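ok trying again, last paste got cut off:
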Amino acid sequence: MHLAFNLSTTHNNGRWNLPGAWDDRTFPDVTLYEDAARLAERACLDMLFSGDGTGVPDTWGGSRDGAVKWGVFFPRVDMLPVMAAASRVTKHVGFGLTYSTTFMHPYYLARLMASLDHLTNGRIAMNLVTSTRRTDAANFGFDQLMEHGARYERMEEFVAVCRQLWDATEADAMVWDRDSGVVGDPTKVHDVHHAGRFFKVEGPLNTPPAPQGRPVIVQAGGSPRGVQASARIADHVFGGDMPLEVQVKQRAALDIALRAEGRDPDSVGVLWQTPIAVRETDREARAYREMLRGSMSPDAVAVYLSYIDGYDFSTLPAHFTLGALREQIIATQASPNGVVTKLAYKFGADTTISREDFLEQALLTVTQYENTVAGTPKHVADVLEERFEATGCRGGFMIGQAIAVIADLQSIGDLLVPELQRRGLFRTEYRGRTLRETLAES
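nice, full thing came through this time. structure:
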């Protein structure tokens, strides 16, 4: 079983202010991330991971003020220098960074990742996303979002270019002969000459070959087109937090897609996003999870929902039916599969609900309160083991939506990991030299 820890929102959406989170520090104090890396490595975790976004949410009331006021996906920084700093206080744990293939250029990112792979001695992964937020698109000069299928086509070409660039300089091309003064072997540095639908790149990179050869590629795709893209480009897949039966179906669909691409399904693991709260007793774990209920104000929940679902929830009337609200959301071409749809299925589409009750119920969803696995080390390990076996014993878990980053990493290392080790499900030491080798362990 592989375990990664998701740092993405540990300082947003009210979590920064919970006991055991940032203590007397505030984002982006790099010492917290250094401490997190030390704790993750002590627990033998595979990787620290961070998602990203480059826009400030402005769907709620047509303004970004709510996001700034309540810290909803704001502020953020490019996590590359932060992860680079954390890598200098560790030797084994990997680091995953998120970049958009919709907005970035493959030459720049291939060079950046190769450089960072050197800095970390082969411990870097890049998580590639097809951006779906208009606020992000506007910051890169786009008047509207690229069509769904075209975003994935661009991603696939993007990765193809990166791979050509990483492979253009052979592994033994660097000579560094002090006697002759020869630096590299010109016969082992090759042209790329890529000319495609989205990119034109001559190459090669001017960096030395990366320690991993190619940095690890992670990609999340739940739609049929996204699963197809995963099968084509991903070394490991970032799977969503969803019911087990849905995870089983997505794993089966991925296996079919991998075989169609001529790839061995056993070579591609899925890291399922899984929020947990582990404590010595069930009572302590449930009390810890309860902190999520007080982490966000109703207005902050509305700002969050507006950004995620692409619909302005500041316009909610005092009372409404969930079905009618869902139809309004669909009519605006916003997300039809968001929180409103989930609540409509849960309570019935014809159910009339007040604005206050709706936001209270939404809080349980947006904070992951309902999905957080809370309990003793034995209980949490039982759940992870069941899901691991049901999805084919390939991959593991992205421990996400941390309640309080430092407290969570401490409890994972002190309580959960020893229980998984006792069952023979998790390593007791690192054996791989690079992140790619660590993720290949079975």
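cool. The chain has two domains: 2-288+370-439, 297-366. The two ends are 8 Å apart (CA to CA).
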